[in-house]
Amino acid sequence: MVDSKIQESLEAKIKILNETLWDYRALNPSIEKWLANFSTDEEKIHALYLLSKFMYFGAVPMRNLLKSLYRDLYRYPLIASIRKSNNNTLDKDIIELKFKEEEKNTRFLGVGNPSESGAHLLYFFRQENKLSKKLFIYTDEAIDRNGGVATLHFPDVKHYVFIDDFCGSGSQATSNNNIKNCVDNLRNLSSNVKISYLMLFATSDGIKNVKDSGLYDSVKAVIELDKTYKCFDANSRLFPQRDDFPFEKDFTKEFCFRLGRPLFRSINQKEGFAGAELETLSDITALGWGDCQLLLGFYHNTPDNTLPIIWYDEDEIDWFPIFRRYNKKYNL
Question: DSSP characters for 262-281?
Answer without folding.
Answer: HHHHHHHHHTT--HHHHHHH
